[in-house]
TrEMBL record, chains A, B:
<feature type="compositionally biased region" description="Basic and acidic residues">
    <location>
        <begin position="181"/>
        <end position="203"/>
    </location>
</feature>
<dbReference type="InterPro" id="IPR027267">
    <property type="entry name" value="AH/BAR_dom_sf"/>
</dbReference>
<dbReference type="InterPro" id="IPR031160">
    <property type="entry name" value="F_BAR_dom"/>
</dbReference>
<feature type="coiled-coil region">
    <location>
        <begin position="362"/>
        <end position="396"/>
    </location>
</feature>
<feature type="domain" description="F-BAR">
    <location>
        <begin position="22"/>
        <end position="324"/>
    </location>
</feature>
<feature type="compositionally biased region" description="Polar residues">
    <location>
        <begin position="204"/>
        <end position="213"/>
    </location>
</feature>
<dbReference type="InterPro" id="IPR051627">
    <property type="entry name" value="SLIT-ROBO_RhoGAP"/>
</dbReference>
<dbReference type="Pfam" id="PF00611">
    <property type="entry name" value="FCH"/>
</dbReference>
<feature type="region of interest" description="Disordered">
    <location>
        <begin position="181"/>
        <end position="219"/>
    </location>
</feature>
<dbReference type="InterPro" id="IPR001060">
    <property type="entry name" value="FCH_dom"/>
</dbReference>
<protein>
    <recommendedName>
        <fullName>F-BAR domain-containing protein</fullName>
    </recommendedName>
</protein>
<keyword id="KW-0175">Coiled coil</keyword>
Amino acid sequence: MTSPAKFKKDKEIIAEYDTQVKEIRAQLTEQMKCLDQQCELRVQLLQDLQDFFRKKAEIEMDYSRNLEKLAERFLAKTRSTKDQQFKKDQNVLSPVNCWNLLLNQVKRESRDHTTLSDIYLNNIIPRFVQVSEDSGRLFKKSKEVGQQLQDDLMKVLNELYSVMKTYHMYNADSISAQSKLKEAEKQEEKQIGKSVKQEDRQTPRSPDSSSNVRIEEKHVRRSSVKKIEKMKEKRQAKYTENKLKAIKARNEYLLALEATNASVFKYYIHDLSDLIDCCDLGYHASLNRALRTFLSAELNLEQSKHEGLDAIENAVENLDATSDKQRLMEMYNNVFCPPMKFEFQPHMGDMASQLCAQQPVQSELVQRCQQLQSRLSTLKIENEEVKKTMEATLQTIQDIVTVEDFDVSDCFQYSNSMESVKSTVSETFMSKPSIAKRRANQQETEQFYFTKMKEYLEGRNLITKLQAKHDLLQKTLGESQRTDCSLARRSSTVRKQDSSQAIPLVVESCIRFISRHGKRDFSLARICAESGRTSRNSLYSKHRD
Amino acid sequence: MTSPAKFKKDKEIIAEYDTQVKEIRAQLTEQMKCLDQQCELRVQLLQDLQDFFRKKAEIEMDYSRNLEKLAERFLAKTRSTKDQQFKKDQNVLSPVNCWNLLLNQVKRESRDHTTLSDIYLNNIIPRFVQVSEDSGRLFKKSKEVGQQLQDDLMKVLNELYSVMKTYHMYNADSISAQSKLKEAEKQEEKQIGKSVKQEDRQTPRSPDSSSNVRIEEKHVRRSSVKKIEKMKEKRQAKYTENKLKAIKARNEYLLALEATNASVFKYYIHDLSDLIDCCDLGYHASLNRALRTFLSAELNLEQSKHEGLDAIENAVENLDATSDKQRLMEMYNNVFCPPMKFEFQPHMGDMASQLCAQQPVQSELVQRCQQLQSRLSTLKIENEEVKKTMEATLQTIQDIVTVEDFDVSDCFQYSNSMESVKSTVSETFMSKPSIAKRRANQQETEQFYFTKMKEYLEGRNLITKLQAKHDLLQKTLGESQRTDCSLARRSSTVRKQDSSQAIPLVVESCIRFISRHGKRDFSLARICAESGRTSRNSLYSKHRD
């Protein structure tokens, strides 16, 4: 604008404008192509999603069927067991409970994966189909709108072109009128200059010489000046008229320029954005819902599976040898129930059913009692030592078998290369040399435990027998000191009894005493075993504690 | 004991005893059988667990392979896309991101199920094998211990049997000695009675008559009494001796009875319990560890899967049309970038590049400006109405497409009968009549939206153009009032300029004003588009907000 060295002519300006418009037109075409491509990609993506979920539904169904078969294989086995009571009995054992829950879990997972497959087919895929339909329809409609917007834009550019050309035309006219005016002005100036020179020559010293010629000349010059002035005025009017037209045309051009730039701005900044919004209308939201349906299904599956695993974990926590032992004993009550106590059977009406601890056997019994006592204390000390060793060994075994080696988190921490998964996992449990060593150690310890166990049980066997004898002796001897009955007296008492048939008070109280204290535990056990399972349980545990 | 009506004899007592021992022996046999059975069940259970996990490992591997294939099928497709830059570009779009994460998740699950399968085969199954070996060995050893304990118990019972028989023997001897003694005592009494009678007959009134006979008789009687006395004494001694033996035998019997009952008690209450403990040694703990390994594997799988689902959920949350639009525009920057602004091109060195608003065009322009203003206010009101309707319609569509219908929890709430699963699930999404209705409604609303949209865009088109013209007119007219330059003056100014070639200050300030205020937005957009993507983004969003 500021460089006047070279004025731009119509053709140049038009050529530049054409180039600019051509570029815009090319962009508009590309924009449509770009939207078409996005539409195609979208349709392709939705098709892929449908194919993906269709195939995954098949996989889930396959998986479900396999799990179902697996569960059925073992459940059928249980069902075929004829003795249903036996089956019921076994179920109370904690390992069997774990096993049943494991099978339940497989059945549950089978069912859940069927549900998943069904949700894929009958909910998620139809959603993608809908999104695809909607997308296609919206793209088509949006493209129509876009085409209209582009057409409008091109109209604006054409308008600009025509007003620009009008401006060029009127400006050219104005320039031409201006130059014609300038020419007239020059001629006028020239004519005025001539007149002044001639008047300068004519006027001095000879006022009347050839005045007619001068007047005639003056008249000719004056009409020429007038003619030129008239032409100049005419050209001035023409220029003013053309100049106004040019100004108006330039104004129109400037206004059109403003409108065009605003329209282009609007199209690129607002229209294109709105157009893409139209294409996207509901797409993201619908896709969101379809994928959330997938997530909901997966999370429900996960929750269901987790519930099952919780149940199994609970059962695993309740794996308990002690309660299983009690349940087993209850189950086979008749097999594990202690038998009737052996009672004293009086031979041929023998009336003395108690230990006789009077002279002459008394001193012998006293001595025997003392011997038993000293032997028992030695035996007990020895067996207590064995027991301690045995229990320490048991603790070692417990430590071995309860080592917490079951965390497999490491196996799920993959390195970046997926190929290395297999080798990592396989080595975790079996190939560790420490495991083999631990097992050898476990068996050795176990062997030692059994040796000590046998030793301890033998000792306890002997102690039990001797203790029983010793206790009876001690009790009887303690009583016999208080009840001063000699063998002689007793024999007469026996004779008296023979006739009266009554049990002497002394004997009666002895029986009561023994049954109340000496054999209390056994009698209780007996009573409980006969009166029902439940109470016996508590007794067993009391004994073991 | 108290019923003397019938004395129990040896045979009777022995028979009763035999019956009682026979019952115990039968129980002991049953106990061993019971332990054998438990051992067999345990081995069977462990075998079942191994078979179960072996089969499940196969199923998991199958599942894993199918998932791998599924993921590869689609990933291969992406990989085969030649234009990697294009692929990279597409990945920034939020739906494509979801799709990629979906495929990643399948790959992750495939890998995790392979790991699971591997843990089953190489960790869990070997554990069950070990538990099975341990169980068998322990049962064998425990059975030996049990056999020993039973043998010991039988020994005690045999001992009781023999001391009981000894008691019977000595008691029989004692009874027999007692009866012989009684017989002797009776004879003695009889003899004493005879002597007294004879002496009563002999002594009154005839003291010397036949005294020799009496003395002789007396002598005979006396020796007979002595003989009887001697016999009685002998029998008394015999009885005392036998009685003592019987007492001792009874004492031994009573002591043995006590020892036996204590041993039986110990065996049933303690030994059997210890024996079962020996069989169970480490069984529950090892089973616990094996099952915890299973749980650890399942929970790790669950966690891994959940992490993947979280990533997908995050991507679904980030499904966003606005940012995708921005990314698309960045991606195709050259296609969506606004073109160069159309500049005023002065024709043939035309120096006036601004709107001319002096007389004589001024009044015309003023009028035109007023007309534009009134037309614009009408158009704006109308278009605002259209916009409101359009936006309300859009909101309706948004409400339809964002309805939260994706929760499938119901599908996982099974009724007790598993058969009814399929029908329930299938009906959830597609067959609901409300869905069809909703879709019809959606499309109708969409159609209406597009109608309003087109109407609005047309209005905006017109408003943009008229507004641009109006603004330029208003601005120029405002300035021309201040800068009082008439057409006439101007034309002379132009002429002056023609010679000086300098832009007048007025024009220069006009240019600056317009470029600073009037076309500010557009210029800014232009600058940003040229200076880089990032800043343009913020501009886009500014414009849309």
